[in-house]
């Protein structure tokens, strides 16, 4: 079994990361609407809004997953309040699921949020994405139904809001996962 390493995507990998994102979300819904497809493919925009993480299958260097930790107030962060980072678009290629890449991407997202000085990380996931929600619960995140009510619940892609670890009150609880070094980059 090979190892999985999490790091920031390099600029020359953005096109491949876009393909991994699209392939990772394929099958969850029917063909994505054009605006959703544009979001999945906008790796430079996601990187500029926070960071663009990749899961790399070592030693062969294959990109197998991605996630976008986002700073509050940026174009792609739709749930984060001041002092919170947001994680969106966590995707793992179907043939690599079940190996821990998704959890590792989430833990690194927690580390990035901490390095940015955020008090919490909010997860944005489809309300029907129960596979991801099980991972989030296992890592101590709690679903925030009140935040979901702020969104248009009639849209198919409206988010499920998860906050944590540690509860729904700002500043409570503790972070889980490794303490990431506060330097980002390749």
From TrEMBL:
Keywords: Acyltransferase, Transferase
InterPro entries: Acyl_CoA_acyltransferase (IPR016181), Bact_Acetyltransf (IPR050832), GNAT_dom (IPR000182)
Domain N-acetyltransferase stretches: 4-159
SUPFAM superfamilies: Acyl-CoA N-acyltransferases (Nat)
Key word Transferase present: yes
Superkingdom field: Bacteria
Keyword Acyltransferase part of the UniProt annotation: yes
Basic and acidic residues composition bias: residue spans: 149-158
Molecular-function GO terms, alphabetical: acyltransferase activity, transferring groups other than amino-acyl groups
PANTHER family: AMINOALKYLPHOSPHONATE N-ACETYLTRANSFERASE-RELATED, AMINOALKYLPHOSPHONATE N-ACETYLTRANSFERASE-RELATED-RELATED
Identification of the protein by name: N-acetyltransferase domain-containing protein
